[in-house]
Amino acid sequence: NYMAFLRLITACIENNVKTIVFTSSMAVYGDNHKVPFDEEYLPHPCDPYGVAKASIERLLQIYGKEFGLNCVILRLHNVYGIRQNIWDPYRNVIGIFINRLLYGKPPIIYGDGTQKRAFSHISDIAPYIVKSAFIETCYGVVINLGGSGPRTINEVAKIVLEKFDSELDPLYADPRLCEVKDAYCTVRKSKKLLVFREKADFCEEIRKTIEWAKAAKIRQFKYFDPNKYEITKKMPITWTEEQI
């Protein structure tokens, strides 16, 4: 994430790009704040992904000030919907659940499933990403953007199983390393600056995403070789093909 963005922003500056909208993540908040996470909280990421996103945010703020670049930082969370990447075994719980069910495997839940997340349908996100680039009051500002209603992972698994018409039961595994228990955000600023409104119905959009995935003949998970790219100690059981 970081090195790719560094190359991108360098090219933008050299070619006089005026505005950048960066899709960050609520992972920057980490595990040291009460929910719902507010933009006024200082970043406290507790995993490499969150650290990378927080670092990019800071780099963008510095370069924006130094080179006169209009920058908008949108902290998204758990975006899902038709045409999402659901062959990635490492992120996006809804996609992971659907992929496993497509191949006759039950969802795997880390911990007891009571952890809470807010989910954001792409139709509620994409228009505001575009809109933010043309609103001057968004320049230089960090904005949470996404769903505001938290759900437990147990609840999400139940809905996905029902919409898939599956009789399988979830499997439970040990909690993931560095996972935040509850993570969802305020939407106060996005409502004020972007006039943000949630419209998507969660259960209905899950059904549509499942129907799309069934028709699209989604491939099975694509894994990296952990011996080349990852620390293998304490690696979650679903991160390597041999352990599933």
TrEMBL record:
<dbReference type="InterPro" id="IPR001509">
    <property type="entry name" value="Epimerase_deHydtase"/>
</dbReference>
<protein>
    <recommendedName>
        <fullName>NAD-dependent epimerase/dehydratase domain-containing protein</fullName>
    </recommendedName>
</protein>
<dbReference type="InterPro" id="IPR020904">
    <property type="entry name" value="Sc_DH/Rdtase_CS"/>
</dbReference>
<dbReference type="Pfam" id="PF01370">
    <property type="entry name" value="Epimerase"/>
</dbReference>
<feature type="domain" description="NAD-dependent epimerase/dehydratase">
    <location>
        <begin position="1"/>
        <end position="130"/>
    </location>
</feature>
<dbReference type="InterPro" id="IPR036291">
    <property type="entry name" value="NAD(P)-bd_dom_sf"/>
</dbReference>
<comment type="similarity">
    <text>Belongs to the NAD(P)-dependent epimerase/dehydratase family.</text>
</comment>
